[in-house]
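note to self: dont lose this again. the chain is below, predicted strucutre after it. 86 aa total, dont forget to put it in the shared folder this time
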Amino acid sequence: MRSAPPCATPKGNHVYIIDASTGTVIRTFDTERSVIADIAFADVDFDSYPDYAYVTDTGGAIYRIDFVDSSKTPIASGAWSMHIVA
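---
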């Protein structure tokens, strides 16, 4: 019997948003499988703050973390959300 490939394990399936000044974890998001690459940040309104973050896992899922609402207004960290986009 063959064992499951390493990508089937949930080890490494978290995204941590950390305060760079203090090292405090602000939010944690879970993915279905391990995160396999750097997180890409997008600043779509060019205000020098990220509006979205994109994450991919070993299953090929792409997730988007929203730091803004539908009108591109920044939202509090407790309202940040993550969605599978592909």
